Amino acid sequence: MQIQVRDNNVDQALRFLKKKLQQEGVFREMRLREHYEKPSEKRAREKAEGIRRTRKLAQKKLNKELGIVSIKKPKQATRPKPSV
Fold first, then answer.
1. pTM of the prediction?
2. What 8-state DSSP symbol labels residue 11?
3. 4 in Cβ contact with 10 (< 8 Å)
4. How far is the C-alpha of 8 from the C-alpha of 41, rounded, in Å?
C-alpha cells in the first residue's frame, strides 16, 4: 500500500493511511491477535458477529421498506488531556 504525500503535508497523509488501514480491518486484526483466543471463544465470537451482522442488515432492509431515514449522531467533542 502506498500513500502519496502532497505538499509535504505528512499529517494529512497519515490520516489517509489510518483511514485505509481501518477500512481494511488491520487494526481489528491486530487487536484480535494480541492474545491467544481459544477455538471455542473464537467460534462464539464469530457466531455472535454473524448474528449481529444479520440483524443489522434486516433492520436496514426494514427501514428502507418503511421509508425511515436514519439520523446520524453528531461527533462528540473530545476532552483535552489533563496536564501533568
1. 0.55
2. H
3. no
4. 46
Q: Which three cell numbers stand for residue 84?
A: 501533568
Amino acid at site 84:
V
pLDDT level of residue 84 (50, 70, 90 thresholds):
low
Q: Quick count: other Cβ atoms within 10 Å of Cβ 81?
A: 6
Burial 1-12 (b: 16+ CB within 10 A, else e): eeeeeeeeeeee
How does pLDDT run across 51-66, given as a tens digit for each residue?
Answer: 999 999 999 999 999 9
Alpha-carbon gap, residue 56 to 61, rounded angstroms: 9
Per-residue H/E/C for 16-84: HHHHHHHHHCHHHHHHHHCCCCCHHHHHHHHHHHHHHHHHHHHHHHHHHHHCCCCCCCCCCCCCCCCCC
